[in-house]
Design goal:
Layout lengths: L1 H9 L3 E15 L5 E16 L2 H14 L1 H5 L3 E4 L3 E4 L3
Helix pairs in contact: 1-2
């Protein structure tokens, strides 16, 4: 989220709402432990000003720069659910 907000800011996009619903797939092991094999983020963003197409595109760039996504050993995907343009 922080990279996304930064990229929006430098591109003149004013974000006024950001919600995310993360969904993970857990792979259980025979010994009772387990591990996540996939995590999918579903951000829903509201913008007040700026290019809505660019705002959607920036999710991909933010994901590329995310230190968490780059640090874990699990596939993380980003699939935006919605983008709302909120008037002044």
């Amino acid at each position: 989220m922080l990279w996304y907000l930064h990229l929006c800011s430098v591109n003149g996009i004013v974000v006024v709402d950001y919600r995310d619903e993360a969904v993970g797939t857990l792979e259980p092991s025979a010994d009772g432990s387990g591990r996540f094999v996939t995590v999918t983020l579903h951000p829903a963003v509201g913008i007040r000003r700026g290019d809505s197409e660019k705002a959607l595109e920036l999710h991909e760039r933010a994901h590329e720069l995310c230190f968490i996504a780059r640090s874990v050993n699990v596939l993380i995907e980003v699939k935006p659910r919605e983008l709302t343009v909120i008037g002044d």
